[in-house]
Design brief:
The chain is α/β, with parallel strands linked by helices and about 260 residues long. It is about 45% helix and about 20% strand.
Length: about 260
């Protein structure tokens, strides 16, 4: 547990340490690095597991300014630099996956392997953006509880233990953090299929079969059929959007098998 001064931010991170192949985990919107607890516990004997809280979320000290997914990618690379790690495998969940597309294109030499979890490559339709803006604004007003309930249903389904852990964390988030965090996602730039097809790292796509936030068909169309070095699509049974939390038993073994082959 530590904080690194990177790109003007106080980046909170956790590093399991050791002289092992490095794996960097990048979490989804509203979550923080603890969402990868099941994966880190499963992998830490064989991998150096590194994870950090993205700007506006968790324990990272954010400077309060607007930022882009490229800034988040630069934060991840800056953390590797500070830790003296030249190359790592990356696991990006949802928002973390959007970041991973951009990171893998901008810093290809730093990526040994890439896992895209509950995510896709693309931008939202104008209709979806309007819904997200309404939710963003509702979080700052009387609609906060309703917005959190919508996210909880999309991300965690009816899993009571997970809801009991995450909902209080979301309730404690300042409205400004959610405002800027959602803007980063709403306003993300479009990466064409041709551009995404230039990603050179071996990749694995993992997706919950019950994901209503990002339907699996989007991942199949924009990642599985586009990335040139896809080694498989793992369908996680019963998984809502946070499939790695909903069903770690179905997530961890194929994740480790992929890392064992391509991240060493």
């Amino acid at each position: 547990m530590a904080t690194a001064e990177i790109n003007g931010q106080g980046l909170y991170y956790e590093d399991s340490g050791g002289d092992l192949p490095a794996v960097v985990f990048m979490h989804g919107f509203l979550f923080d690095q603890t969402m990868f607890d099941p994966q880190v516990e499963y992998l830490r004997a064989d991998y150096r597991c590194i994870r950090f809280d993205a700007r506006t979320l968790g324990q990272t000290r954010w400077d309060g300014r607007p930022f882009s997914l490229y800034d988040t990618a630069a934060d991840a690379i800056g953390l590797l630099d500070q830790l003296g790690i030249q190359q790592a495998a990356f696991v990006g969940m949802s928002q973390g996956g959007y970041t991973l597309v951009r990171l893998a294109l901008r810093y290809p030499e730093r990526v040994s392997a890439a896992v895209f979890l509950s995510t896709y490559n693309g931008i939202d339709t104008d209709e979806v953006k309007a819904i997200y803006r309404s939710m963003r604004d509702g979080f700052a007003g009387d609609g906060k509880a309703e917005v959190i309930n919508v996210f909880a249903q999309l991300f965690l389904g009816t899993h009571q233990a997970l809801r009991a852990y995450w909902i209080p964390r979301w309730q404690a988030l300042p409205a400004a953090n959610v405002f800027h965090g959602m803007n980063t996602l709403i306003d993300r730039d479009e990466i064409s299929s041709a551009k995404a097809g230039q990603i050179t790292a071996p990749t694995l796509v993992m997706h919950g079969e019950g994901d209503q936030g990002i339907p699996m068909a989007l991942a199949e169309r924009t990642l599985v059929r586009v990335l040139p070095h896809v080694k498989g699509l793992v369908r996680i049974p019963g998984g809502a959007h946070a499939a790695n939390l909903m069903n770690p038993e179905a997530t961890n073994p194929p994740l480790k098998a992929f890392l064992d082959t391509y991240a060493r």
